[in-house]
Amino acid sequence: MSEPGQSAPATADSPPGYADISPARRVGLLEVAFARVNYGFGAMVVVSLPFIAWYAHLGQDPLGLVLWSAWYFVGFWGVRGLYRRYQRACIQDAPEAVLRRWSPLIHGVALVYGSSMAVPPLLTAAHATFEFQLLYLVTIAAIVASNSVHASPVLSVFRCFFLSGWGSVTLLVPYTFPDHWHYVMPLALVYILTILRHSAISLRFFVQNVVLQEEGVRLAENFRRAKEQAEQALYDKNLFLTTASHDLRQPVHAMGFLVASISRSNRDPALDGALADLRQSVQSATQMFDALLDLSRIESGRVQISTEAVDLAGMIANVATLFREEARDRGLALRVRLPPGPAVVVADGTLLRQALNNLLHNALRYTRRGGILLAVRRRAGGWRCEVWDTGIGIAMRDGTDIFSPFFRNEHAWDIDSAGHGLGLAVVARCCAMMRARHGFRSREGKGSCFWIQPDAAQAAAPLVVPRSLDPPPPRMLPQWSGSCLVVDDDPLVRSAWQTLMRSWGLETTCVESGSQALRLLESGLRPDVVFCDQRLRSGENGFELLCELLGRLPDARGAMISGELDSAELAEAQEQGYLVLRKPVETAELQAVLGYWLPAPAAGSPP
């Protein structure tokens, strides 16, 4: 049976109705109504006992009322059995099937429950007193009022009970109250209207609560799905960066070797400055690339922030070197102001450098004329890194949004439409991870000052000076004697290895696969050092290949070379005591390894 007047779904201007509830929730409401009907059968047994005793006290035969009470008693246990079957059906069957099968039955039970209330007036009208009949009428009215609250979740069930029960009692009023029916009848009719309105209000209350519950469940499910999608997107991004890091590091790795080789063979002093800047640019590109990958790993919870005492003077000087040529191309002056003494803070050097790079890059992008100032100043017992510019400035109304991802003010779009509004968001992220304070002050049309203030270093903190990757001057580089075998599948990297190692006096053989390396060993090659890339296009495992090569070369030394961030094979190699070098390999680090493995050059050997 359907709800009268409630079959149409709610519109935007109307409150939700019974038709807006899902079948599963309707089953729940029907269970509430069924439980109330079952309770009503038992309640009528208790209610009947005082009336049976009173009727007998009046000297009348109470057998009819006793049978009426027994009917309700039997009905209570019968309905209780049906109610338990209904609960099992709710668990086992689909909601639509439960509604289709049980709704007519429950309506029928409610009809029987209500109509049976009209039996006592029929049995006692000619024999009971006015007080007896009036008290029974008031008792039925109280039961109806209670049901109007608890049975109205399904309004049609309540109406079956109410119209068959109170309706029948109302029709019998002239017979029950022959001398006073014209007073009682209007009251009974008004009561009908009142209860119908009250039950409709109760229904709306139940429906609104159910709709709110469903909306809460829906929002919770949407949030769960969105969270899973965001986590999956973050996982996919991190997986991509981890997987692609090897190939992305290859050209930087080769570039570093080639720059070192050119610096070694250069004899023109006029090129020394350009080569030094080129080496510094390769170094900075490597560090920025590492920082981006580290940020990805931090977001996935796989990296610990490494705080240390950092010399700001050295870091600011390196950052200025990286951007000096770009400032010159833009016609801007790039100045650096450093304190006369040491300026040391506690921070993650990689993240601090990344933040400063982003601030300086932003300053250059949005400054048309004038210049940029990089400064380190003493503030509140600590050191503050400041980036001043004479650019477009920032309106104060944008102050709360400037560090938000993808935010760009209106003037920024006029100057540079290629940006995405991520630079300052990365600065804020880096500062948050380092627990460093950051901020800015600006005058629109005049310029801005962005600043970062890490924690001040304690006096006993070990100082870590940001070191350059520049190798020693060519004349100071050692010459080694020996041979080297390099296994790498990238032809550009192999060429860079061969050029660099030959400039250091080493005979170098480069191959792209393990099968080629093994054939060379079989033909008599006996290298002193073996470098093996972890990921080879032939599908070979670099660590297994290195172990096999060193097993055939008991006097050789070897190391793994990889651009991967996380690898089970590399972790296993380190646990077993093998050296793992991360791409891009620093030439200074490579020199240190070779200097430890190979014998020192003989005295008087040519440079």
Offer a concise description of the structure.
With 607 residues, the chain is of the alpha/beta class. The N and C termini lie far apart (101 Å).
Structural class: alpha/beta
Give the tally of structural domains: 3
Number of helices: 18
User: What strand line-up does the widest sheet have?
Assistant: 2-4-5-7-6
Q: Indicate the radius of gyration in whole angstroms.
A: 44 Å
Structure description:
The chain has 607 residues and is α/β, with parallel strands linked by helices. It folds into three domains: 18-225; 306-464, Histidine kinase-like ATPase, C-terminal domain (Heat Shock Protein 90), CATH 3.30.565.10; 474-597, Response regulator (Rossmann fold, 3-Layer(aba) Sandwich). The protein has helices spanning 23-57, 63-92, 95-115, 119-124, 130-150, 155-171, 173-176, 181-265, 272-299, 312-329, 349-365, 410-415, 423-434, 491-503, 514-522, 542-552, 568-575, 587-597, and strands spanning 308-311, 333-337, 344-347, 371-379, 382-389, 437-443, 447-453, 455-456, 463-464, 483-487, 507-511, 529-533, 557-562, 579-582. Strand 13, helix 17 (568-575) and strand 14 form a beta-alpha-beta unit. Helix 1 (23-57) packs antiparallel against helix 2 (63-92), helix 3 runs parallel beside helix 6 and helix 11 packs antiparallel against helix 13 (423-434). The relative contact order is 0.07.
